């Protein structure tokens, strides 16, 4: 489980999933960091992205736009996206802007990873 | 009824400013117009202080009536100070009347400003008016060469009565403010004007100095009982401030907010003095952006500029003889330096070596101009305007004390600069006062919880509780006391000037009252109340000192049935409370006072924070996540208004969006965003503006909801921010501004 910080958002890998940690204010700068890290993880073969919002108190529309871009890219790569630990106010905003139609909200990181595990277990095995 | 008709452009005829730039006096303007339009209305007297400024009010009334094109024909005539004979003034009145009448009849405003001859006026007369005006001109020619001035004057002044009734009803607005105690001839003319109109069947408005006009009207046995009287009060400080700004804008004079407020205080809201001063600033190219620049110009003006010439001109008219004038200046100045020793008539008669009648005329003139107050015996000089007192001091030093001009100028500038901050401090303290006089004036036998007069008990039970709970507890309190009915309130200083050494005039008052609704000796009471300046609970010694000072005032004034009431911001220490209780005095904190005031009924001025609007302003540079600074501020404001956490979060997000919207789209060169937060009882209004371009996507529509966000989100990620704002806030609109954008968002407080 490698952690990486700095130019990229803080993240760690759990199997084929990557958990990326959003900062306290999701704006253009922090949004782009998340975007970069997500792309890096997808390019490395990651099959699921968990974006954890435990530290996020405030979001703005630019940050949300960037998240929408991430969701797009992930969908095109066939990767799943789960948002975890979203506080109720931020969840309302995501709901208002329709994000919740495209991502699952998990209570916390653990639940998000469990969900991913269950999904991958249930996936049909192709021959 | 209103005199504003925003849908119709108001033509400016005689008015020197547009209606929108005319500051204050809205009520008086309305009353004048209503008076003119009331059928069978007779006279209206406008009584005002010498520099209160009424000419523009009458001109605005003229314009209003002219533009209404109704049945009322307005005439405006001003009796100027410039030396003219009574006959020439009467002829000028005739000319003015006919010119303005024809201007109205022909609907040609520009004609009102011309000075045609009578024959030219005859040529301008419409066919319906030709005959009677031709007859008028013929009669005038006969009277003119009749060698009877008195008859000619009366004839000219009565000319408006010749208007045929079917052509409309005249309203003559005569400005006799300039009238001073003048040579007998001009005095007689003014009397004739008053007499002519008060006995004529025309509607008229006479504007004159308050200490003179009413007396004159009575002395001429005018029909005063049928005459309406308006006492034109001074402009409010807010209006005077607005006047300064508008004059500065019109004359292209820079004025800072600090100097604006200083001018309001120094000139005591006088439109005439303010206007003269700003004109001088324009003339000399002075920017009024510092106290130094302001006071330098002020001293120049006092020493020989517009202000000095005005005061000198008035003084010269009151006292034409130069030697006598110098003696008078000496007496006036020396009296003003010892205000507690009011000189008497006989003393001045002796020192001035002047006959009774001459001195009476002088004192009457000074009294009319409100340079003194004279009751027939004692002469009070300390209530005169500040500018006059400065002028007087300078003239005394130059003409009587024979000091060098350079010294007088230097001293006057330094004195003015030293006084300026004191003047403003006095203003700020006055504004911060709790409104003791206003609240006591509203005591009218109301029942109030007695705890509001007892800090000791209040502290034990109420202190620290939220306002709503205090209100509920007070409403349920059955231990009530009945306030007396106050019949007269005045400052303590009015009874004993020495109290001014203790506090500002508005912070200690004397209220004469009757208890239990009975006007008897036994029920008569005198309340002496004072607001103590203290940041903490007041100690025993200070409490004692105040109590004893007020008791001294009571004793010296011979008051019986005294009730002492002390108010201090944070209340009183326990031992001080004990002292007050022992002496049956009341002690309240500011909070108690405000709670009491709010229970006195409608028009609560003492309870300043009830339904108060609080405004906060911030200017923040764009970038560097500076929206977070704004967000923290608005969060605190919303919390104080008791918004729920969910609503606070919505407000924060809306503010963030508005901020970054302005940052991204305005291309503002100054890179600043202006925030204004207006906190009201039931809502928070946030305005975020910036200068720069107006984006194509932004239109000045009010409160329209655009398509629901979820339909647009994925298809169009542009405009997310605006969508979000409209979803999060209750009302959103773009205000129309000249430059840039201004977004106003409102969130209502829900229980």
Q: How would you describe this structure in keywords?
A:
heterodimer, A: about 130 residues, alpha/beta, Transcription Regulator spoIIAA, six-stranded mixed sheet, two-stranded parallel sheet, B: about 750 residues, Rossmann fold, Dna-directed Rna Polymerases I, Ii, And Iii 27 Kd Polypeptide, Chain: A, domain 1, five-stranded parallel sheet, 29 helices, 19 strands, about 15% strand, globular
Q: Could you characterize what this model shows?
A:
The complex is a heterodimer of chains A (127) and B (751). In chain A, the strands form two sheets. In chain A, strands 1-2-3-5-7-8 form a six-stranded mixed β-sheet. A two-stranded parallel ribbon of chain A has the order 4-6. Helices cover 44% and strands 22% of the residues of chain A. Chain A has helices at residues 28-43, 61-77, 88-96, 109-122, and strands at 3-4, 11-14, 17-21, 25-26, 48-52, 58-59, 80-84, 104-106. Chain A is globular and about 35 Å long. Chain A has a single domain, classed as 2-Layer Sandwich (Transcription Regulator spoIIAA). With 127 residues, chain A is an alpha/beta fold. The longest helix of chain A has 17 residues, at 61-77. With 751 residues, chain B is of the alpha/beta class. Chain B has four domains: 19-232, Rossmann fold (3-Layer(aba) Sandwich), CATH 3.40.50.300; 240-423, no CATH class; 436-598, Dna-directed Rna Polymerases I, Ii, And Iii 27 Kd Polypeptide, Chain: A, domain 1 (3-Layer(aba) Sandwich), CATH 3.40.1340; 614-748, Heat Shock Protein 90 (2-Layer Sandwich). In chain B, helix 7 links the parallel strand 3 (169-175) and strand 4. Chain B is globular, with a radius of gyration of 32 Å. Chain B starts with 25 loop residues before the first helix and ends with a strand. In chain B, 40% of the residues are buried. Mean pLDDT of chain B is 86; it is low at 603-611 and 699-716. The interface between A and B is medium-sized, with 21 and 22 residues.
């Amino acid at each position: 489980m490698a952690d990486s910080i700095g130019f990229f958002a803080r993240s760690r890998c759990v199997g084929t999933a990557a958990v990326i940690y959003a900062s306290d204010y999701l704006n253009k700068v922090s949004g782009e960091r998340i975007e970069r890290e997500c792309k890096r993880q997808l390019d490395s073969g990651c099959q699921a992205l968990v974006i954890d919002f435990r530290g996020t108190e405030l979001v703005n529309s630019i940050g949300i736009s960037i998240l929408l871009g991430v969701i797009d890219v992930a969908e095109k790569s066939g990767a799943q996206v789960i948002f975890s630990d979203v506080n109720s106010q931020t969840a309302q905003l995501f709901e208002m802007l329709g994000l919740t139609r495209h991502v699952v909200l998990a209570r916390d990181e653990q639940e998000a990873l469990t969900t991913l595990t269950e999904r991958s277990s249930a996936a049909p095995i192709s021959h | 009824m209103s005199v504003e008709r925003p849908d119709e452009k108001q033509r400016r005829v005689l008015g020197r400013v547009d209606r929108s730039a005319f500051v204050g006096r809205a009520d008086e303007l309305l009353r004048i117009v209503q008076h003119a339009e009331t059928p069978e209305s007779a006279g209206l007297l406008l009584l005002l202080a010498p520099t209160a400024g009424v000419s523009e009010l009458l001109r605005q009334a003229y314009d209003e009536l002219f533009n209404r094109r109704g049945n009322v024909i307005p005439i405006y005539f001003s009796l100027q100070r410039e030396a003219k004979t009574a006959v020439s003034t009467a002829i000028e009145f005739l000319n003015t009347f006919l010119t303005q009448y024809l201007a109205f009849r022909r609907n040609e405003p520009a004609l009102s400003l011309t000075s045609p001859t009578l024959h030219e006026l005859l040529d301008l007369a419409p066919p319906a008016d030709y005959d009677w005006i031709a007859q008028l001109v013929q009669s005038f020619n006969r009277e003119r060469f009749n060698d009877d001035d008195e008859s000619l004057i009366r004839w000219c002044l009565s000319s408006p009565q010749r208007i045929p009734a079917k052509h409309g009803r005249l309203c003559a607005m005569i400005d006799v403010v300039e009238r001073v105690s003048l040579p007998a001839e001009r005095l007689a003319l003014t009397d004739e004007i008053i007499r002519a109109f008060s006995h004529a069947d025309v509607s008229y408005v006479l504007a004159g100095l308050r200490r003179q006009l009413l007396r004159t009207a009575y002395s001429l046995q005018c029909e005063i009982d049928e005459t309406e009287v308006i006492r034109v009060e001074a402009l409010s400080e807010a209006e005077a401030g607005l006047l300064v700004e508008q004059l500065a804008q019109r004359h292209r004079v820079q004025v800072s907010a600090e100097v604006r407020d200083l001018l309001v205080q120094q000139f005591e809201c006088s439109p005439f003095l303010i206007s003269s001063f700003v004109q001088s600033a324009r003339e000399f190219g002075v920017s009024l952006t510092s106290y130094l620049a302001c006071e330098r110009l002020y001293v120049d003006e006092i020493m020989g500029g517009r202000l000095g010439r005005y005061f000198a001109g008035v003084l010269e008219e009151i006292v034409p003889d130069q030697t006598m004038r110098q003696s008078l200046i000496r007496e006036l100045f020396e009296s003003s330096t010892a205000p507690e020793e009011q000189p008497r008539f006989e003393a001045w008669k002796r020192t001035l070596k002047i006959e009774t009648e001459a001195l009476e005329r002088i004192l009457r003139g000074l009294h009319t101009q409100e340079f003194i107050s004279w009751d027939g015996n004692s002469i009070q000089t300390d209530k005169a305007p500040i500018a006059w007192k400065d002028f007087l001091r300078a003239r005394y030093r130059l003409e009587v004390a024979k000091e060098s001009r350079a010294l007088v100028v230097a001293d006057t500038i330094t004195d003015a600069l030293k006084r300026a901050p004191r003047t403003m401090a006095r203003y700020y303290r006055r504004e911060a006062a709790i409104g003791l006089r206003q609240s006591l004036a509203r005591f009218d036998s109301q029942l109030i919880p007695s705890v509001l007069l007892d800090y000791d008990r209040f502290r034990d039970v109420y202190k620290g509780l939220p306002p709503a709970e205090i209100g509920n507890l007070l409403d349920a309190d059955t231990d009530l006391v009945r306030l007396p009915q106050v019949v007269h309130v005045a400052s303590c200083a009015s009874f004993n000037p020495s109290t001014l050494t203790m506090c500002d005039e508005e912070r200690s008052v004397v209220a004469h009252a009757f208890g239990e609704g009975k006007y008897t000796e036994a029920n008569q009471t005198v309340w002496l109340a004072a607001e103590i300046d203290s940041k903490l609970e007041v100690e025993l010694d200070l409490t004692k000192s105040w109590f004893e000072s007020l008791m001294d005032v009571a004793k010296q004034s011979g008051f019986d049935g005294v009730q002492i009431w002390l108010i201090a911001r944070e209340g009183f220490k326990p031992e001080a409370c004990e002292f007050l209780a022992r002496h049956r005095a009341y002690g309240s904190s500011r909070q108690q006072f405000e709670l009491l005031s709010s229970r006195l009924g409608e028009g609560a001025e003492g309870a300043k924070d009830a339904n108060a609007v609080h405004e906060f302003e911030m200017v923040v540079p764009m970038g560097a996540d500076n929206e977070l600074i704004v967000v923290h501020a608005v969060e605190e404001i919303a919390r104080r208004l008791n918004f729920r956490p969910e609503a606070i979060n919505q407000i924060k997000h809306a503010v963030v969006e508005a901020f970054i919207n302005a940052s991204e789209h305005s291309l503002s060169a100054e890179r600043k965003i202006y925030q204004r937060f207006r906190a009201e009882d039931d809502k928070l209004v946030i305005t975020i503006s910036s200068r720069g371009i107006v984006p194509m996507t932004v239109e000045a529509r009010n409160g329209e909801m655009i398509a629901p966000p979820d339909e647009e989100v994925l298809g169009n990620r542009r405009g997310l921010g605006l969508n979000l704002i409209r979803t999060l806030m209750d009302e959103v609109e773009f205000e129309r501004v000249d430059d840039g954008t201004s977004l106003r968002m409102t969130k209502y407080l829900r229980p």
